[in-house]
Amino acid sequence: MKLPRRNFLKLSAAAVGAVSVGGAVTLTSRAKAAPAWYTKEVKQVFSICENCFWRCGIKASVVGNRVYKVDGYKENPKSRGMLCPRGQGAPAQTYDPDRLKKPLIRIEGSQRGDGRYREATWEEALDYIAKKMLDLKEQYGPESIAFFGHGTGDGWFVDFLPAAWGSPNAAKPSVSLCTAPREVAAQYTFGRAIGGHEPIDWPNTKYIVLIGHHIGEDTHNTQLQEFSEARKNGAKVVVVDPRFSTAAAKADRWLPIKPGTDTALLLAWIHVLISEKLYDQDYVEKYTVGMEQLVAHIRPYTPEWAEQQTEISAEVIRQVAREMARYRPKAVVPPTRHTVWYGNDTQRMRASYILNVLLGNYGREGGFYIAMPPYLEKYPTPPLPLEPAAGGCSGPAAADKEPEGYKPRADKGKFLAKSTAIQELIEPMISGQPYPIKGLFAYGINLFHAIPNVPRTKEALKKLELYVAIDVLPQEHVMWADVILPEATYLERYDDLVAVSHKTPFVQLRMPAHEPLFDCKPGWWIAKELGKRIGLEQFFPWQNIEEYLDTRLQSVGLDLETMKSMGTMVQNGKPWLTDWEKENRLPFGTLSGKIELYSEALAKAGFDPLPKYEAPQPVPEGFYRLLYGRSPVHTFARTQNNPVLMEMEPSNSVWLNAGEAARLGFKPGDYAYLINQDGVREGPVRVKITQRIRKDAVYITHGFGHKAKGMTLANGRGASDSYLQTRYTLDRISGGAGLRNNFVKLEKAPPPKLKSVTQLIKERRA
Amino acid sequence: MQLLGWVTAAAFAPPKAALEQDLVSGTLQAALAEMAKAHSLPTPELPRTKLSELQAVYTSLFISNPAGLPCPPYAGMALDERLFGEGFDRLLELYRAAGLEISPDWRDLPDHIAAVGEAIALLETRPALARALALDYLYPWLKRYTPVLLEADPTGFYSTITVFLSQVLEVVKSETATPQLS
What's the pLDDT score for residue A22? Predict the structure, then answer.
């Protein structure tokens, strides 16, 4: 009896006869300790960490198909030779048994969310997607397919592919659920972006005021290194936060502000600087417009008025303003990254920038440096029909005009900014207004742990005619897709070059440490192969990714082989105003060419040209305001299946003021359910009883509370802030979704019946 | 042992036309009968299942499942409780020394149970080595995951195969003084 062989393996004729049963070479090897990896031939490969969005340059130590260690390298301005725990633990994701391994197609007749799939070849899966896309285009137009994405590879799917395809409905959570207010405010004030690498000259500053800043908790590597350097150099630190954060623990002052009243505090500080003539008058005169209007506008915002709003004493408000003035221009109020708080966030960020300008610190040492992007040409392709619409950490998209024959983005008119707002593209999937969105690509984004109002997102997914998920792990939303495409991890793929705006602009390279495991493919390959099938071959003229990268690098006098030996290429910048003045120009891209304290453009668009205070929505009786933040060892909802990181932090906990805990009868070690204003329940989650938070708010770290059973370590641990965010307040300027207008009450809960992470790691078999 | 290897490879490879042909032609059933006879075991009856159903079940058991993957099809998961552990490294060493190379078309890990099955079959001229491979790599996986499959396999196809292969290897184990790896 013979069965036909399957050809997974082949016999090498040369080796036949080399094995002897019981021989020392093989069969007794279990008794021997395996030689340590570092005693073998170790290859060093430059790459970029993907475990948070600081995106440090790393060097991977590789033996065969395994990365054993990653380190920062000193030539890279993101890591400077150091790496955080998240980065160190990141390689474990590549070897996670829960990884997506093969392309999958949902079984015909099954419902979205049932999770019934069959394995498919890449050809079959891509053909399936292409046919559906072309059908949708024929029936509803190219704009009926939306593209969402997050991560270093998202450019292929959120910028390039939709622009080539003709859909303006491309969006990233890093805009309207994160940086949109600060970027839009920066454009209206400075005519420049803040950008993904916040341009603060930390080492030279002498006075730092952090408002709701997660430094030390989001562990953005060199930012934290430089903050420490500033501290070491004697900088004073003031932390404004309803919670005694990690940064507060390092601060000279902690101002436990009433949540949602930050703009009142900023306006009062501006008031003091102006009324006491403490601001940098020469700087304001030389570089700004609108001071006269600001002086008139700021009169009512006295420290005494602000005390009523913020619950910070007028005396302290005055003291801090005077201290800032004493250290100016080396005093700075750095922007946070996540700025979508209460819905009036662009105006809060405008107030913060105006305060900085009065300190004379923009473009000067110890304040904001002027970040420049590195010079790097695009790969030459035919012109794309549309400009990419999603924007990014560096701010809004450049254009908001649709060429003839193309429809505007589906959220156009809901807010002023030019970029899409991801949460505003969900409703058209349900209502079909202003036109139907019938298809969705989700690349690397966690739809249920990023976009508020999860029930609405689920309803939208059910209405789609095509839903494609491209991911590494079987996250809950992934298992709703019609087609699941397993992407190679960051250690297994090239991505496009990463160009970082910086004091010293730089370009960094990600190259694969080894071949993709399983049947996974890199994002660039997926995009190119799909492009071929949907009539976009002309936009992917490059033969392979190496040729693509090499061509781009030639534009800066390099080639791929040289870059492989460098990892990072650093260029010269123009960080200070004096650098620009030498060229007889200023860096401000505003209409006036100066810093706009008073924004004529906002006034023309019907918005307040100077920031006004709006009181936050009141906390309902019996509820607490839900605040959320970051963990130093986790990133968003991406890392909770990583065994290394989960051993360090296996769950979140809810911070509850000790007085409130006593009133509610919570004791150390107790667990609670969190129930929001709409009856959504999360948890159980351990209660952290602490003096480190105000009585009117509770706090949890973001990213826990996974409901994907296919992620064996992550599933069921802690509580999700995103699931509790059933409401948001739209910022009508930036499109940001203010998420801190959700409220929860606590109910006692039994401890969760969960195995320890350590035990689960051992048992990862069922 | 060679037949056991081929049956393992045929049954645990992603179900495609080749498996359908083995089932329709009765080849796989006949192979089980021959093995049963050789080891004085009753012949199991493979359930009749459509290829499309087998593909769906295979995916949910061995590739991806929103409720948690019941049976990762990798020998290393039974040996080391993780991927790429020491057992995986030992298996690679064994393949290398036996002159076995992974085909570039095989888009999965070398310790996938189907690949282990094929390795057993290919080592036809080294029966002791094939036996050791079966007992030290395949058998631990069968032992760990057969109870899971008995509960999780709605078709009965995979559980029937694993129960039978376990029985065969238990007979082999009791009959033969195999070279031990530890």
Answer: 29
- Amino acid in position B38: A
Please answer whether residues A257 and A241 qualify as being in contact, where contact means their C-beta atoms are separated by less than 8 angstroms.
Answer: yes
Taking only residues 56 to 85 of chain A, the set having a beta carbon closer than 8 angstroms to any beta carbon of chain B reads 66
Same domain, A357 and A214: yes
Q: What is the CATH number of the domain that holds A671?
A: 2.40.40.20
Spatial contact of B53 and B63, defined as CB atoms under 8 Å apart: no
Domains: count for chain A: 3
For chain A, what is the total number of helices (H) and then of strands (E)? Answer: 26, 28
CA-CA distance, A181 to A9, in Å (whole number)? 56
> What is the span of the domain harbouring residue A363?
200-368
Q: Is residue A98 part of a domain?
A: no
The per-residue pLDDT for range A685-735, each reduced to its tens digit, is: 999 999 999 999 999 999 999 999 999 999 999 999 999 999 999 999 999
**Interface mutation vs chain B, best among A65, A118, A475, A646, most B CBs within 10 Å:** A118
Question: pLDDT digit string (tens) for A295-314?
Answer: 999 999 999 999 999 999 99
Predicted model pTM: 0.90
pLDDT digits (tens, 9 = 90+) for A507-516: 999 999 999 9
Same-domain status, A226 and A142? no
> How far apart, in Å, do the first and last CA atoms of chain A sit?
35
ipTM of the assembly?
0.70
Task: Mark whether A268 and A356 lie in a shared domain.
Answer: yes
Residues A356 and A459 in one domain: no
Which chain A residues contact residue B128 at CB under 8 A? Answer: 21-22
**Quick check: helix, strand or coil at residue A240?**
strand
As a whole number, mean pLDDT of residues A10-29 equals 36
The residue written with tokens 């506008």 in the block is: A297
Same domain, A363 and A406: no
Distance, in Å, from the CA atom of B94 to the CA atom of A24, rounded to the nearest integer, reads 11
Question: What number is the average pLDDT over the span A144-165?
Answer: 95
Residue type, A286: K
CA dihedral A168, A172, A173, A174 (to 10 degrees): -130
Chosen for mutation from B59, B112, B116, B178 (greatest number of chain A CBs closer than 10 Å) is: B59
Question: Does residue A648 share a domain with residue A535?
Answer: no
Portion 75-104 of B in contact with A at CB < 8 A: 77-78, 81-84, 86, 89-90, 93-103
Q: Could you read off the pLDDT of A495-504 as tens digits, one per residue?
A: 999 999 999 9
Question: What is the Cα A624 distance to its own chain's centre?
Answer: 26
Note which residues in 702-741 of chain A have CB less than 8 A from chain B.
708-710, 712, 715
Residue A397 gets which letter from DSSP?
-
Which fold, B2-175?
TorD-like (1.10.3480)
Q: Would you say residue A111 lies in a domain?
A: yes
Separation CA A175–CA A478 (nearest Å):
22
For residue A498, which of A569, A550, A398 has the smallest C-alpha distance?
A569
Cβ neighbours of B125 in A, within 8 Å:
16
Q: Where are the alpha helices (DSSP H) in A261-360?
A: 262-275, 281-287, 291-298, 303-310, 314-327, 345-358
Which amino acid is located at A547 in the chain? Answer: E
Burial A167-197 (b: 16+ CB within 10 A, else e): bbbbbbbbbbbbbbbbbbbbbbbbbbbbbbb
Q: Is residue A726 part of a domain?
A: yes
Residue of higher predicted confidence among A544 and A27: A544
Considering the domain architecture, whether residues A167 and A210 belong to the same structural domain is answered as: no
Residue A536 identity:
L
CA distance B19 to A6: 10
Sheet containing A253-255: order of strands: A253-255, A236-240, A207-211, A331-332
Residue A382 in any domain: the answer is: no
The residue in chain B having the minimum alpha-carbon distance to the alpha carbon of residue A105 is B56
Q: For the domain that residue A360 is a member of, what is the CATH number?
A: 3.40.228.10
From the list A247, A258, A447, the residue with the least C-alpha distance to A334 is: A247
